[in-house]
Amino acid sequence: MKKMTYVVALFLLMTALMVPAAGAASKVPLIKINGTLFVTPAGEPQPYINKDYRTMGSVRLVGNALGVLDDNIEWDDKARTVRMEKNKTVILITVGQQDLSVNGKTVEMDTVAELKNGRVFIPLRFIAESLGAKIEFDEKSRTVLITTDDPSVGKHNLASYKELKVVTNFPIVLEASGLKLTVHDVYLYKADSKVVKDLHKKYKFQFFDRAKYIVWSKITLENKSKQTIRYDGLDLNPKVEWFTATKDTAGLFINSSSVNYPDMSSSDVLSGWILKPGESITSTNVQIDYLSEKPFDTFGVNLNYNNVSSAETIAIGK
């Protein structure tokens, strides 16, 4: 019975990644990574179904979404080979070849690696499994589901910004004078995007009429000191600050809403808060930027408390 269940599961997965070329079934399925919809950055080639009816994904873009930093992806133009490394796993893929190498072990794919618009494409299944992820197919929603235990995966959308290169992994942990910040995930949106307009309808962001970007992040604040730490009418000094920079300018995002006492320490969207010694809170932090007059090439987060600062640069210009 177990063997039969395995065979059925394998058949469903192969059906997802070997889609017939006619009718609605020829459409590329949706792709979700750790529950987050995979969106191809503007200007980059989309996933597609090749002549062998395999759902093909960009090694670099899907690799980025699975936590592989750009610095760990190398292209050898002469050999037409891409080398990708994560957590001591080294993957070698050569255009036109059906075999790939994972830590020196040959893995035979069911189609060849292809070069399209400057990107190397192979079946999604082999990208995911080579990086230790699991892959399934939801027939009802026609969605490829990729899951991984890596805590940095599905935690940001920064790969959508073609000019930025992510240089750190999540979660991000900072500490200043006993105040500990953990950034679980972060999403950077342009203020005129549909997702932000929808969020603004619900939350009524302050200063939104001047906003150029918005940061939507899930954070945990923990008071490890021996005194109460607060962000309210008695202490309006910013504690968590998102920042951008170019070679000429630097700017800070600001809190998107004023301190609203009925909503203090909200677990929905964090505005004002008070933490006694030993207390912590996990919530959404929303901040906007209306200072950036041109695209920035540095993005990061800063924790500032009691004249002590701790910062982490998350992404830089390519």
Question: How would you explain this protein's 3D organization?
Answer:
- The chain has 318 residues and is mainly beta.
- It has 2 domains: 2-147, 2-Layer Sandwich (Copper Amine Oxidase, Chain A, domain 1); 158-317, Immunoglobulin-like.
- Helix content is 13%, strand content 41%.
- The chain contains 4 helices and 25 strands.
- A 5-stranded antiparallel beta sheet has the order 5-6-7-8-9, with helices on one face.
- Mean pLDDT is 85; it is low at 2-12 and 18-25.
- Residues 44-146 form the Copper amine oxidase-like N-terminal domain.
- It comes from Paenibacillus paeoniae.
- It holds the Pfam family Cu_amine_oxidN1.
Topology:
Elements: H1 2-17, E1 30-33, E2 36-37, E3 48-49, E4 55-58, H2 59-65, E5 73-76, E6 81-86, E7 89-94, E8 99-102, E9 105-108, E10 114-116, E11 119-123, H3 124-130, E12 134-138, E13 143-147, E14 164-166, E15 172-176, E16 179-190, H4 194-203, E17 213-223, E18 229-231, E19 240-245, E20 250-252, E21 254-255, E22 273-275, E23 280-289, E24 298-305, E25 308-317
Parallel strand pairs: 1-13
Antiparallel strand pairs: 1-2, 3-4, 4-11, 5-6, 6-7, 7-8, 8-9, 10-11, 12-13, 14-25, 15-16, 16-17, 17-23, 18-22, 19-20, 19-24, 21-23, 24-25
